[in-house]
Design a protein that fits this description.
By secondary structure, the chain is mainly α. The mean pLDDT is 89. 55% of the residues lie in helices and 0% in strands. It has three helices and no strands.
């Protein structure tokens, strides 16, 4: 699934789009529940267009 998602995002980038990947190594399918502080930091950074601070 990760490879499929990356392929779609890379195709998007080739056509002028932009994306930023955040990998939650300590989480399974629910990073918002397993790492809520980091998830919120990543989400807020994406919404306001800034890089998150290192956790």
């Amino acid at each position: 699934m990760v490879a499929q998602t990356r392929a779609v995002l890379e195709a998007y980038a080739e056509r002028g789009g932009a994306y930023r990947e955040a990998v939650f190594e300590a989480s399974g399918h629910s990073p918002l529940l397993e790492e809520p502080e980091r998830f919120v930091a990543e989400l807020v950074a994406q919404v306001i267009g800034e890089a998150p601070t290192a956790a």
